[in-house]
């Protein structure tokens, strides 16, 4: 198994591993253009989700990544799935069956059993940038005085002071992010089996939390996100994503 093979013809793109009794609708299509039908290769207790792609067709478009994730998340809503890393291909379906499914049958089945009935959910929220800055300056008089002192001063004459102000604000935001994340994690304890804090992707990120929870608790998680939105109205706007494959909680299968 490799990220990309060379040569002519087609190769087998591998999305992930699922229990052998999983079925995929014939209309489901995968990566590449034109996208081929996603198929299930069964061996014993486990199966691989695959589709054919042209060997010379480069992967990496945003649409490819979206398609990869959509296939996995669609299955994760109804069955456990072990996601492969994006871009994993094999020379043929037979290689997937022999070198992945047969060779690692017991450990793959055990990993699937471990997350049976569970899926990943992601709670992501950003601060309102104006409310965040106002709170930081109110709580940090030194930063507020420095900001006021910089008013009207040309940027080239105040570079060092502006850097210090940025550091003040960055440290204050990080402290708020940590405190708000800890609050959410504490409140989610009754609903979550595991949680993982993701790195912020934006300077205004407040919470970015992956949660492994029972799929039967989806409604409870949605209600919590709604309650959080009301409680933090005008401060943080949270969004709950999922159910999805347990990307943050299982290791990608390796052949």
Question: Would you mind describing this structure in some detail?
Answer:
With 255 residues, the chain is an alpha+beta fold. The chain contains 7 helices and 9 strands. Strands 1, 2, 3, 4 and 5 form a 5-stranded antiparallel beta sheet that branches. A 4-stranded antiparallel beta sheet has the order 7-8-6-9. Strand 2 and strand 3 form a beta hairpin. Helix 5 runs antiparallel to helix 6 (159-188). The protein is elongated and about 70 Å long. Residues 3-7 have low confidence and may be disordered.
For the biggest sheet, the summary is: 5 strands, antiparallel
Q: Which percent range describes the beta-strand content?
A: 15-25%
Q: Could you estimate the helical fraction of the residues in percent?
A: 25-40%
Could you give the order of the helices and strands?
Answer: EEEHEEHHEHHHEEHE
Please mark out the parts with pLDDT under 50 across 5 or more consecutive residues, or reply none: 3-7
Distance between the termini: 6 Å
Number of strands: 9
SS content category: alpha+beta
Mean pLDDT: 91
Tell me the Rg in angstroms: 23 Å
Shape: elongated
The number of helices is: 7
List the helices and strands and how they pair.
Elements: E1 10-19, E2 39-43, E3 46-54, H1 62-76, E4 82-83, E5 89-90, H2 93-102, H3 105-114, E6 118-127, H4 129-139, H5 141-150, H6 159-188, E7 194-197, E8 205-214, H7 218-231, E9 236-244
């Amino acid at each position: 198994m490799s990220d990309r093979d060379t040569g002519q013809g087609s190769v087998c793109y591998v999305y992930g591993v699922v229990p052998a009794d999983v079925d995929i609708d014939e209309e489901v299509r995968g990566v590449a253009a034109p996208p081929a039908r996603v198929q299930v290769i069964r061996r014993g207790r486990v199966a691989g989700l695959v589709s054919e792609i042209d060997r010379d067709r480069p992967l990496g478009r945003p649409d490819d990544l979206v398609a990869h994730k959509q296939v996995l998340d669609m299955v994760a809503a109804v069955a456990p799935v072990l996601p492969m890393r994006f871009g994993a291909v094999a020379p043929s379906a037979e290689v997937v069956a022999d070198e992945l499914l047969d060779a690692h049958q017991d450990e793959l089945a055990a990993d699937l059993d471990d997350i049976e009935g569970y899926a990943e959910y992601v709670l992501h929220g950003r601060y309102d940038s104006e409310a965040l800055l106002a709170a930081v300056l109110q709580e940090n008089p030194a930063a507020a005085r420095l900001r006021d002192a910089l008013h009207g001063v040309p940027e080239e004459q105040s570079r060092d002071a502006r850097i210090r102000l940025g550091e003040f604000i960055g440290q204050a935001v990080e402290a708020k992010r940590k405190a708000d994340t800890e609050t959410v994690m504490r409140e989610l304890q009754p609903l979550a089996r595991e949680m993982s804090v993701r790195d912020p992707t934006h300077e205004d990120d407040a919470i970015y939390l992956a949660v492994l929870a029972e799929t039967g608790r989806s409604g409870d998680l949605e209600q919590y996100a709604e309650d959080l939105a009301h409680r933090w109205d005008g401060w943080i706007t949270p969004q709950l994503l999922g159910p999805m494959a347990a990307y943050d909680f299982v290791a990608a299968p390796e052949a």
